[in-house]
Design brief:
Blueprint lengths: L12 E3 L2 H14 L3 E5 L11 H12 L3 E6 L3 H6 L1 H9 L4 E6 L9 E5 L3 E5 L7 E4 L3 H16 L1 E3 L9
Parallel strand pairs: 2-3, 3-4
Antiparallel strand pairs: 1-7, 2-5, 4-8, 5-6, 6-7
Length: 165
Amino acid sequence: MDENKEESKDGGIRFNSRAELETHFRDCLGRSMSTLVMFDPDFSVFPLGTSDIDAALRHFLAGGGAIRLAMHQTDHIERQYPRFVRLLKDYGHKIECRVTNRSLRHLTDSFCIGDGVHIVRRFHCDHMRGEAAFAAPAATEISLERFAGIWAESVSGLHATTTGL
């Protein structure tokens, strides 16, 4: 086994770098057919602004997929990811973004879950250390529950236009 592809006790693939995170994120996106749910404080490490991710997300959404993003701050996406903002304009009916309230700002993990069975997650947003698991519903359970709680406590945010229409 490649030393950078260390497997955890529960079968997940551990990673320690941004490049590995991005590789696993692309894999998660490529495997997903219907839903992507994501939480990150600001999405600065997810490559949402690259042309290949834009193309993959467009393909995913055109095929019937839906995306839900929850975050603490929208600034990074608004300033650094114009492709994602255009995607939001084009597919606003299939993408919903929410911003956490102050009581949740202490949450520092980060994850992307595809179809409830694939997950890429960082243990803390200040570090690249994390784990990915594919076709592993049990690996997503805790993060899906966390996402449901975060989603319920968040408000609508990051709209394609300043009026949100």
